[in-house]
Design brief:
The complex is a heterodimer.
Chain A: H1 6-33, H2 54-63, H3 74-105, H4 111-120, H5 130-139, H6 146-154, H7 157-169, H8 172-180, H9 185-196, H10 198-213, H11 217-222, H12 231-239, H13 246-277
Chain B: E1 4-13, E2 17-27, E3 32-36, H1 43-51, E4 58-63, E5 66-67, E6 78-81, H2 93-103, H3 108-122, H4 137-149, E7 155-159, H5 167-184, E8 187-192, H6 195-201, E9 204-209, E10 212-217, H7 219-224, H8 229-234, E11 241-244, H9 245-252, E12 266-269, E13 283-296, E14 299-306, E15 312-318, E16 328-334, E17 338-341
Helix pairs in contact in B: 2-3, 2-4, 3-4
The chains are: A mainly alpha, B alpha+beta.
Amino acid sequence: MVENRPWANFFAHAVLIVGVALVVFPVYVAIVASTQPPDELMRGTIPLLPGSHGIENYTQMWQSGVSSANSPPAALMLWNSFVMAMAITVGKLFISLLSAFAIVYFRFRFRMFFFWLIFITLMLPVEVRIIPTFQVVADLNMLNSFAGLSIPLIASATATFLFRQFFMTVPEEMLEAARVDGAGPMKFFKDILLPLSVTNIAALFVIMFIYGWNQYLWPLLITTDPDYTTIVMGIQRMTSEENPQWHLVMAAVVMAALPPVLVILFMQRLFVKGLTETEK
Amino acid sequence: MASITLEGLKKTYSGDVHAVKGIDLHIEDGEFVVLVGPSGCGKSTLLRMVAGLETITEGTLKIGERVVNKLEPAERDIAMVFQNYALYPHMTVYNNLAYGLKNRGFKKDEIEKRVQVAAKMLEIEDFLERKPRKLSGGQRQRVAMGRALVREPAAFLFDEPLSNLDAKLRVQMRVEIKQLQRRLKTTSLYVTHDQLEAMTLGDRLVVLNAGQIEQVGTPMEIYARPASMFVAGFIGSPAMNMLPVDYLNEQGANGLLDHLPDGTDIVGIRPDDMHLAPPSAPHLIVDSTLALFEAAGAESHLYVTLAHSDQPTVIRVSGQPPVAEGETLRFYVTRDALHPFNSATGKRTED
């Protein structure tokens, strides 16, 4: 707005500040709580200033975990979560890019049927198909493995659908020009479609990574070996102890929140780049 | 370089839609042929069939001596310039030009050489490192041409390449395309709906209507002797006037219409062949009322309504004659300006 209205300006800022404070406060409390000595959080009042045991709490959580809660060191759990989330993300992107490519650019029998089949599975979240999926994974001897953790979650109707929508906006002449230029289907996919999809891939990468990182029910079912405990499972176990060690839980929570933030920060550059660099 | 031969080429879409209804055409090596016709006449479909982007339902297509009906576009040794350019937005101009060569396994230095030559010819050397988005419409057009040029193909196919440019640039690019083609002597097939582009560019014109060839010939042949009423109305601007013979006889034909070929019931007269001053040769006389006067600089268009008829007619005269709207005008037409047609068949009636 061009006009100068100090009150409107002030009001807008006030609303924004309150909004930010509402979001940031719980995060602040978690960080403060993770620096307190063991008993501090059990006294009833939550401290609002950082305590003295920060380094100690994080080191303990990182290196040894909470054995009484059957929770392995955070380093291992974070690694497990990371591997699972990455496998799910990369797998989902790979499969959905290829299937969207097939649906948009190839003419085959029952093309629309397959598209709708994929589309319908959007309506079936993991939880609905969890028992049969467990049976299949168990029969394939994939319990307690990264394969079992990630493969059943890889198929993604959402990403397929979004890529299909995007591919359909790519002008058809682009494909024709590539054909005249001697590019076969896979070359067209690799040289032209993929670079044009960078923005979409980055956005979906973030969404899929967070989806994978936050998986809770499935890892809980599929793994019994503590070596495959993910960070979300570990936090859940620590909080369900009789006397949860909240300072350690909070340290784990803060650590668990970091990788998604890093992924967003890293991918953000691609969004911006993508938005300014690609255009018809 | 090669000739292109189309033999009975047909395209039928599902649902019995006949887009192209049997085209026979031979394009000589190095010739510039323009396909012209109104929207939906099948000219783009025909071009895309030659390019290999549409399948051929029936007929034979030869490029050089090779039948290419079933070949992929890349194997036909043609290059195409698209209406909206279809440049790869994420690649620099250099890579846009080089992509087709890379796919064909050319050596790096050969690619470099060819891109530089093409860029120089089209004066886009300064933009080679830019992305298409940073270029103006005319520059993109040049890049699209460059992409065809570097390939040194047997034939160029142009699909209305100038229709996205503004009027001034269009004229400029038209001249450049013509000069470029003269210099390279590459067989070219050019699709347009703009009859002026068609007239000025082509060695030969192919006028298409409803999936069929109406007439093939040099631009001047077609302009001077349109083979059908459709061609007569399509080529030339403003369009040719069509007047019934009976009407002209009533108005005072001076016996001029007595020896028209058999079956003639309508005659076409170009707007520039209607004179306001009586010529010395024998002539027809028609009275009319000026409905609208349109001054277009060096020439003027007079939209008149004929006496005892509501037929709209256009007269083109040079300069600005001193006439006022509503005034009665008398104009004169000589015998050799008449194009005789039969309205039932739509064909020209003389041989």
